[in-house]
Amino acid sequence: MRFLFFRKIRHWRSADKQRRKLKKGAMTLISAFLFFVFSTLGMSMLYISQIYIKLSAYKKNSILLDYASENGIKQGFNQLVNLLSEASFPSILTPEETNELKEDALNSGKKILEKLLGPEIPLNNSATWEKLSWETSTLFFLKTIEEKDDYFKAVYKAEIRSEGMIKNFKPKRESTLESTMEILVGNLSLPKIPLLIDKKLNQEQGENYMEKNKIEILPSDENSLPPQINFSEEKLLPQEANSQLNKALKIKIFYPQNLSTARLRTALGLEETSEPVPEGVYLIKDDLGLGGIYVQGDLEEMVLALEGDFQVISFLTQHGCWVLKFSPSKSKTIFSSPTEKHFYDFIPLGIIIVNGEIRSLGGGIVDSSGQVILVKEEEIPSILHGVNMTIISSDKINLSSHLIQQGLKWKEGIPYLKDSNSQLIIFATGKDFLEGSEREGKIVVDRNSPKEIKVQASLTASGKGFSVEGEGKTVHILGSLQASDYTSNKNKLKITFDDRVLEENSLLQNAPQTTKPVLLLSSFKPMEWKEF
Fold it and tell me: Can you give the residue ranges of every domain in the chain?
């Protein structure tokens, strides 16, 4: 029994030793495994760190490439804007040049662009800054061409392409900026030109003109070009209004001398004799309907006002007062003279011809008695929604109060015209319609007008120009101004261009036109920026 017991004890000790040996091998295996795991993690972290460093470097270079490409776009855009700003607008053309440009544009040529920017088209540029560099090219493509009676409009796409690069870095970054350019060629309606002084000045005189005369042109949302004043090398303002006379009188005349006294009397409904036309206000009419208004002689006062759905115009002369009321929505017209009143189921053409001076023109109200009263200080809308009116005088026109259209809104001192679909054109020709003799042909902001007067109209003064009388005035023109000259008398002039006239030709049916064909960049606007 002892032997067996001894053998049993001996066997137990041997198993214990084996277990101890097995335990020693497990620890070594675990240690090796842990070493492998931590080594792998360490190597992975080193590898990931290297990847992260490379990604960070790539991201940094990618951002730098964006900067380089963006700098190229900005440089190309500034180059194009500077070239367009330095160009002389409007550029006067001969009829032969106009036809040549038209034919070339119809054949997708680029002579218009060469006339505008010079012969170096496309425009190329490059620059370097530290490790960054970029190359820029500006290409032009004709999008559309639209033909009108007296001019045509060519719309081009200007595509600025930029390639950004980094020294010792192979990848590149490309970007493009697309802009549109609208170019008008031909005899243009003058309201399409925001500010034109019809005289030739040298460069120094032109640069100082706006500052000297306290002129400010507010920038437009529809045009990226900086607003500027335009001067003409040759006379562009007409001193005749033949097309407007044709429409208003419902007759055909091609030259001023064709309008004889006898013919005018017939158009006015008077007996055809050689006697002078009696002074007064005449509503033109025939079997087909109503024409315009013709005034023979000076007007002491002309007042525009609103009365419900009716546009009201009062004409005060030395011989009495005439009142015209018409409603486009109701197709009704009431014309009152000092002695009688007439009713029509038509509305007149929006053309008023005054062969004389308008000594006071402004907006007003219709009081409870039906009398039309001029209002000076209060800003009252006086031009009915949807009415297009052209007032033409052979002599001087004095602006006495505000002239504002329905739908005009002011926000923080800035006018918004989008809700207004009316138009007012005021034109002083400087030449008698019958005799052809020289008249003053001047538009004047009266010294007794409001200190801050607002005129929502396109003004053209072909005779002795435009002037502001009095002291400490600020004149806001919401439209455009074209004049043979301008006298500020140290008053301020602020012009907000009416962009609607560039697209809505219906607003300019009776507007005066340039006497010669011109080339005019009417709009330049960036449209889309892309990165590749």
Answer: 56-187+517-532, 242-515
